[in-house]
Amino acid sequence: MSRVLFFPHGARIAVLTQEVVGVLDYLAPEGGVRLGQLVVVPLGPRRVMGAVWGEGMGDFDMAKLRPVARLIDAPPLSPEMIEFLERMAEYTLTPLPSMLRMATRAPDLDQPPSARRIIHRAGPPPERMTDARSAVLRVIDDHGGAGFAPGELAQLAGVTSSVVQGLVKAGTLAEVLAPRDVPYPKLDPDLPGKPLAPDQSEAAEQLRAALRSRRYGTTLLRGVTGSGKTEVYLEAVAECLRQGRQALVLLPEIALSSEFLNRVEARFGAQPGEWHSGITRSERRRLWMMAATHNVGMVVGARSALFLPFADLGLIVVDEEHDGSYKQEDVVYYSARDMAVLRASIAGAQVVLASATPSVESWVNAGAGKYARVDLRSRYGTAELPEMGTIDLREADMEKGRWISPRLAAEIRARQAKGEQSLLFLNRRGYAPITACRACGQQVGCDDCDARMVEHRFQNRLVCHQCGATKPIPVACPACGVEGKMVAVGPGVERLAEEVAERFPDARASVLSSDLFGSARALKEAIAEIGAGETDIIIGTQLVAKGHNFPRLTLVGVIDADLGLQGADLRAAERSFQLMRQVAGRAGREGGGARGVALLQTHQPDHPVIRAILSGRDEEFWDAEAASRQSAGMPPYGRLAGIILSHPDQPVVEDYARVLAQRSDPLRAIGAELWGPAPAPIARIRGRARVRMLIRAPRQAPVQAAIRDWLAIAPKAPTNLRLSVDIDPQSFF
Ligand code: ADP
Ligand code: ZN
């Protein structure tokens, strides 16, 4: 697409504002303005931020156009970024202003780049310690002593700024002037990497060759956990850096990055830029600026790093590409994995999708030749895949209120005797999934949602995992009023931890569950401790399934392998396959001699997913899963789009959805089917009634255009109704 890149003073230009109104015409200010320039424009009585989006085209009277108020001193968005945002908006049916907000999600872009005041730790704790003061120190320590703006520090700690000032006076903290926007240290791609095994170096060479083409392409890098995928794609990063281009590595969870950053430093001599919810505001701004000015070579980040304004992006790695956290289902519904492919195709960059258990979509794309495929067949060195087995819970002699079978317990004891680690995996946060009354059978539900409340004993409260609402654990049953009859039913990780403490009193146990850590740093520390061997028994949710290296871990016990086998969800089988394969892959990674063992406790040892996991013939699982999707016309062989409507009143949302469904000619015109409306599986969230519709269309059908036409002819929506479109939905809640 060719675009005019500069608009002289007085030219009619289009500016995309961050407001709902979208693109409006203005006049270029004195001195002219570049395409993509961030600007402030008048909008009625207000001033709002926007970006110069192209030539103006409105029929608005030229004489009435208002000029741009002022330019923001930040690098302009590139034509490539503008095209990416436009095409993503079209694909996901997201209004452009929301896209602009994603691309400018760095604070203080409007501030000059000069020095700023920051607070950092300077001396010993004060003599007089208060709760407020220790809250401040905790925030500082959680961020590894990073610098904060004074107001930000007070806000994060939940205290007034006088508390912060008090600590400065006491000499515990100091306030200094620090330069903003310092370039990141250069990474050196020519430091020697680890010598690669033959299949690894072949894989690395294939990725390097793809990069040398300097054109778009996607490669699926598949290999069992521990086969060296990370080593291999770091070689692709090295090639990208040698070419003088920038590389982005997306990871599913911040928990991955502490180990990961050190690995990058070991390979390239310096740490990469880091982007996730745990970084400070000043780091955020710095990284945004440095990406745009090519002063950072490599960025490691969570999914939203995809919207950083890289000046010359040459490579995007999506590690654990199958991971569900790449799908955002809030405000903007998008898959970062799929949008990485879109962005790379516009930038002329390469994509590497790495996984031990790829999504069925990527598996099919590789099979069809749309993606190249590289396989690492064995684990690095002597480490072998764990021996897999099941424990049939129908025959195990389970004690009441216990979740670890006698056989699994014996295996744990054997590990403990040898100084090796065991991991117990249960994908359920909290103490117990159900709190029920023994007198009347009533289960405690959330007042605002259609979900059961989960007991969290550490917090001593019931928590709704849907909306986050909490309430005290009731003494009397809310339904029948009988006291002292409330019981916890079923296990969560906290309850499992209790059982471990009772049955293995001399073992050091550690629970890894996302809600038990106040900060990303605390979680990283816990993971580092486990890695150093300071734990005998690890109890964890899906948090542990991802990428950590625990060298002394030789036993994995899956407490309830049946969880997730039967869901209302298209991907239930795929997800539990991936999860269990990965958890099992934690065992015996380093190959220090001991081969790992993974034991799955299940009531259905003959279930096809369990059998595929045990056999180790993963291809069979994917081929079978792909075939069943194909015969059902489901993704990736057909296309799905979810429509989610919500309103405080159930009849209102139901009526409106029914009318929409009746007038769906534009959908029928492309051969799409419309299912629903039906109450969403969780029919109330945060006090809003929810209704879903699902559209299924043939693979090549223009779904987005049809949905746009359909919604355009829809009758006016009742006030307070919300409608979201979820293209390629991952979850069906
Ligand atoms: P994956 O990403 O496939 O899970 P990793 O790249 O993390 O695998 O490798 C697993 C472990 O093996 C890591 O500790 C890594 O450092 C080590 N490793 C892999 N390849 C090599 C190699 N060629 N030389 C030395 N160590 C290696
Ligand atoms: Zn709730």
UniProtKB/TrEMBL annotation:
EC supergroup of this enzyme: isomerase
Entry keyword set: ATP-binding, DNA replication, DNA-binding, Helicase, Hydrolase, Isomerase, Metal-binding, Nucleotide-binding, Primosome, Zinc
Required co-factors: Zn(2+)
Identification of the protein by name: Replication restart protein PriA
GO BP of this protein: DNA recombination; DNA replication initiation; DNA replication, synthesis of primer; double-strand break repair
Function field: Initiates the restart of stalled replication forks, which reloads the replicative helicase on sites other than the origin of replication. Recognizes and binds to abandoned replication forks and remodels them to uncover a helicase loading site. Promotes assembly of the primosome at these replication forks.
Substrates-to-products reaction catalysed: ATP + H2O = ADP + phosphate + H(+); Couples ATP hydrolysis with the unwinding of duplex DNA by translocating in the 3'-5' direction
Oligomeric and partner information: Component of the replication restart primosome.
Binding site for Zn(2+) 1: 437, 440, 477, 480
Source species: Paracoccus laeviglucosivorans
Cofactor binding comment, as recorded: Binds 2 zinc ions per subunit.
Region named Disordered: 106-129
Binding-site positions, Zn(2+) 2: 446, 449, 464, 467
Domain of life, source organism: Bacteria
Family matches, as NCBIfam families: priA, PRK05580.2-2
